[in-house]
């Protein structure tokens, strides 16, 4: 599959940069985790922290509804301070519409979709739309980096078959100085399959 990358950027505050990929590192040597409709690269020092599924859930005589899983994948450093998570939600849960979303750009522009993916009260450090050439055309990914005094998050969102796939890498602000490039690179490695 041929992959071509094009990037548009909205950053606050604007920083002079000749290379739009400053702050990323190669993830080719990292473990590639395949989930339901996605793949993501995991840094070497991260461990799988997903809880095993409760196979008895939904089997009671009272017709309990099966609860949807919160996370499709979840990895953390041994001390648990840095976490990479993937969640999958039906796109119509994020934005009410009668039409099935085919691409993350169906949520609006990068700026319009910010209110869906970036919590209010946080500082937005960077926002980018990334277009990847695939066999069937182009797929758009939205990237946001935001945080508050305590936490920082790199988030990538994409849509595939009416489902929104969101990868987020989170760490305390104090660790972002050393590990921000690794965490940002992990989030950007998300691929919708």
Descriptive labels:
193 residues, 3-stranded antiparallel β-sheet, 3 helices, Mog1/PsbP_a/b/a-sand
Strand order of the largest sheet: 1-7-8-9-10-6-5-4
Query: Residue ranges: pLDDT <50 for 5 or more in a row?
Result: 1-20
Secondary-structure element series: EEEEEEHHEEEEHE
The 3D shape can be described as globular
What is the beta-strand fraction? Answer: 35-45%
InterPro entries: Mog1/PsbP_a/b/a-sand
Protein name: 23 kDa subunit of oxygen evolving system of photosystem II
Provide structural commentary.
By secondary structure, the chain is mainly beta. 15% of the residues lie in helices and 39% in strands. It is built from 3 helices and 11 strands, in the order ββββββααββββαβ. The chain has helices spanning 91-94, 110-117, 173-188; strands at residues 5-11, 31-35, 38-42, 47-48, 73-76, 83-90, 123-134, 137-147, 151-160, 163-172, 191-192. Strands 1-7-8-9-10-6-5-4 form an 8-stranded antiparallel sheet. It has a 3-stranded antiparallel sheet with strand order 2-3-11. The chain is globular. The termini are close together. Residues 1-20 are annotated as: Disordered. This is 23 kDa subunit of oxygen evolving system of photosystem II. One of its GO terms (cellular component) is chloroplast.
